Automatic annotation (TrEMBL):
This is MogA/MoaB family molybdenum cofactor biosynthesis protein. It comes from Brevibacterium aurantiacum. Residues 22-169 form the MoaB/Mog domain. Keywords: Molybdenum cofactor biosynthesis. GO terms for biological process: Mo-molybdopterin cofactor biosynthetic process.
Length: 183
């Protein structure tokens, strides 16, 4: 992942060290206890491996409960306590209650559609249904939010794409990237 050895026996600081992350799972059946949450543990493990302080996934019903969970993290939580990374899984398809992208978009200050396009491209390597995901990605303050599909394959594809970009996303949001002279 993002933490790599810089010399024998020496390890760089973890990307997420000193930062928090959150995972929201949009699954009505998992929220009711009728099905297991299969993507939350994958996402939480990934973020913890990157060094983020990440609690267990928040599992909510599709629809408005996703919007409420996002508002709690992005609006109700004091800015200095907000997670730096928020990943949702589920609610990005075409079913009537798949509203995760709409609730996410209304809270973002700036969107980054190229990240979703990259996830579609990766997903298309194995399944044509990858393009049915309507996820969005973007920023609110110093928090990056991205919608992953609800399938384990879609989550693994999303991690593959975003893992390589996460450091640049984070330093850009925190404005700690040296852009150099702009010509």
């Amino acid at each position: 992942m993002n933490s790599q050895n810089s010399a024998v026996g020496e390890t760089d600081d973890l990307l997420g060290e000193g930062r928090s992350a959150a995972v929201i799972i949009a699954s009505t059946s998992a929220a009711r206890g009728e099905a297991a949450d299969t993507t939350g543990p994958i996402l939480v493990d990934w973020l913890r491996t990157c060094g983020y302080d990440t609690p267990d996934a928040i599992v909510v019903r599709d629809g408005e409960p996703v919007g409420q969970a996002l508002r709690t993290l992005l609006v109700d939580t004091p800015e200095h306590e907000r997670p730096r990374i928020i990943v949702t899984s589920g609610g990005t398809g075409l079913a009537p209650d798949d509203r995760t992208p709409e609730y996410t978009a209304e809270l973002l200050e700036r969107q980054s559609p190229g990240l979703i396009y990259a996830m579609w491209r990766k997903g298309l390597e194995t399944t044509s249904s990858a393009v049915m995901s309507r996820g969005v990605a973007g920023v609110r303050g110093r928090s990056f939010v991205i919608n992953f599909p609800g399938s384990k394959g879609g989550v693994k594809d999303g991690i593959t794409v975003i893992d390589d970009l996460l450091e640049h996303i984070q330093t850009s949001i925190e404005d700690t990237t040296d852009h150099g002279p702009r010509v």
